[in-house]
Amino acid sequence: MRFRKGILLVTLGVSLLALISCGKKAPPFLPEKIMPLKVARLEAAWEKGTVVLRGSIVDPEGKSRKGDDVIGCRVYHARYPVDDPPCEGCPITYGGFKVIKGEVTKEKEFYCPVPGIETKGIHFFEVRLIGRNGAIGTASNRVKLRIDD
Predict the structure, then answer these.
(1) What confidence tier does 1 reach under pLDDT thresholds 50, 70, 90?
(2) What are the extents of the domains in the chain?
(3) What are phi and psi of 26, to 5 degrees?
(4) What are the φ and ψ backbone dihedral angles of 47, each rounded to 5 degrees?
(5) What is the C-alpha separation between 126 and 140, in angstroms, rounded?
(6) Which letter, b or e, does each residue of 23-43 get, where b requires 16 or more Cβ atoms within 10 Å of its Cβ?
(7) SS3 state at 38
(8) Residue 23, pLDDT above cutoff 70
(9) Cystine design at 42: which of 49, 98, 99, 140 (Cβ 3.0–4.6 Å)?
(10) Within 10 Å of residue 13's Cβ, how many Cβ atoms?
(11) How far apart are CA 18 and CA 7, in angstroms?
(12) Which of 55, 29, 42, 31 is closest to 108 using CA atoms?
């Protein structure tokens, strides 16, 4: 009788441990994709009816790097009327972004014509690079462009 109670207790203990140790502990997740490069010293120009963004490609330490792993960029854009610009230092609300795929790098430089911006006003831009693995880089500096045409 004592032997059966011992076996029963051991079986219950093992079953209890199996219930506690098995199963889903946390939701599954994918490892975060990393894009270490970003655009520094971003500049915007109005050339022949098109906005052109230029800058340097740098690593997290600020050293110039080639953009071999860059397959495109996200261009964040906001437009304000010339007669009602935001105050200096005020936050800018971007209305969304355009994904521009293709070659946006030449050696260690960033070069990107942005189609579809033809209205006059005060325009603000930020850029994030896109890597081969789909990772999105950190934001560039914000740049302001006034179009009077």
Answers:
(1) low
(2) 38-147
(3) -150, 160
(4) -125, 115
(5) 6
(6) eeeeeeeeeeeebebbbeebe
(7) strand
(8) no
(9) 140
(10) 10
(11) 16
(12) 55
Closest-CA residue to 147 (of 75, 85, 76, 74): 85
- Per the structure block, which two tokens stand in for 53? 């963004």
SS3 9: helix
Three-state SS across 49-99? CEEEEEEEEECCCCCECCCCCEEEEEEEEEEECCCCCCCCCCCCCCCCEEE
Q: Please give the residue that has the higher pLDDT: either 87 or 130.
A: 130
Full-prediction pTM beyond 0.85?
A: no
Cβ contact 7:14 at 8 Å: no
Three-class DSSP category at 105: strand
> Which amino acid appears at position 115 of this protein?
P
